[in-house]
């Protein structure tokens, strides 16, 4: 709404100052000051990344829980970071939003972060597994916890070999974020824009393609970490479908954690009045008919 208002600034000015169109007193009450326009322009720079993050995390065609912490870290350390050019009002807005996000996602101790399902999902996601958005100590704690989970899966398999049965693989389509609007003159990839330096642009695998069926849990995790990082548009489910024979036990964890939805938007769209807010709906007939 604010973006559209800024686009129509000249048209609004022309209407307000059109002779005979409205009373001078009404025109003065409708006219915004230069400070108001400047504040709106600055507000858009804050709100656009938040809108992009909301759109991406509300998706249904790709795992979203794994994106929560990388995206939030990008918002906190890039888009909500105070700048010397910010006005006092903008600094206050950034501080309020950043404080709320920090208290919700990064206020817990390292042990709580290491065991959080969304963090485990990020560690199992081929695009975010390096956990660049966390410090070294937190990363070590997460991989230690993942090692514990993987050992539990291996122990369960060894005590009950029949508990794992092959199922018919489902068709997984490649996912992109082409429907997410990126601000003009910004980076072309939505997640790269949101996450900045936390976005892993991918690279070559540091090893060949060994069969990891007989590797122990620690080696399996290390081999997975050295795999080539997927680019943004790649689908993690498709990657795991192709590499499950190489990482059968780790794939069991991936099926559990990558299956977690990052938000309740999918159900809200159907069962709640909130769906009227998060879903785009046609409000008028198309101007071009027939």
Automatic annotation (TrEMBL):
A single BP term in Gene Ontology: regulation of transcription by RNA polymerase II
Source organism phylogeny: Eukaryota, Metazoa, Spiralia, Lophotrochozoa, Mollusca
Highest taxon of source: Eukaryota
Recorded GO MF terms: protein dimerization activity
Organism: Patella caerulea
Cellular compartments per GO CC: nucleus
Pfam families: Dimer_Tnp_hAT
Stated name of the protein: HAT C-terminal dimerisation domain-containing protein
Domain HAT C-terminal dimerisation: 222-286
């Amino acid at each position: 709404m604010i973006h559209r208002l800024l686009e129509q600034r000249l048209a609004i000015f022309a209407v307000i100052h059109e002779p005979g169109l409205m009373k001078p007193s009404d025109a003065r009450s409708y006219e915004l000051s230069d400070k108001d326009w400047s504040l709106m322009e600055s507000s858009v720079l804050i709100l656009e990344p938040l809108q992009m993050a909301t759109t991406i995390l509300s998706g249904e065609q790709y795992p979203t829980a794994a994106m929560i912490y990388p995206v939030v870290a990008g918002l906190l350390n890039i888009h909500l970071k105070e700048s010397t050019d910010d006005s006092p009002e903008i600094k206050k807005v950034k501080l309020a939003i950043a404080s709320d996000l920090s208290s919700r996602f990064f206020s817990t101790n390292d042990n709580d972060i290491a065991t959080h399902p969304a963090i485990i999902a990020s560690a199992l996601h081929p695009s975010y597994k390096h956990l660049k958005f966390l410090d070294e100590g937190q990363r070590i704690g997460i991989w230690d916890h993942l090692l514990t989970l993987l050992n539990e899966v291996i122990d369960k398999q060894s005590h009950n070999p029949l508990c794992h049965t092959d199922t018919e693989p489902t068709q997984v389509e490649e996912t992109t974020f082409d429907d997410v609007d990126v601000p003009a003159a910004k980076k072309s990839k939505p997640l790269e824009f949101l996450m900045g330096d936390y976005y892993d642009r991918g690279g070559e695998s540091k090893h060949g393609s060994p069969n990891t069926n007989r590797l122990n849990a620690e080696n399996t995790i290390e081999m997975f970490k050295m795999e080539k990082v997927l680019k943004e548009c790649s689908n993690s489910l498709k990657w795991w479908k192709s590499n499950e024979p190489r990482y059968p036990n780790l794939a069991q964890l991936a099926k559990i954690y990558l299956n977690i939805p990052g938000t309740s938007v999918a159900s809200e769209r159907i069962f709640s009045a909130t769906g009227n807010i998060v879903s785009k709906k046609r409000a008028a007939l198309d101007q071009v008919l027939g």
